[in-house]
Amino acid sequence: MCRSIKVLRRAGQTVTAEELHAAALQFVRKISGFQQPSKVNQAAFDRGVLEVSSASRRLLESLEQREPRTRATKPPATPPVTI
Question: Using CA atoms, how far apart are residues 57 and 23, in angstroms rounded to an integer?
Answer without folding.
Answer: 11
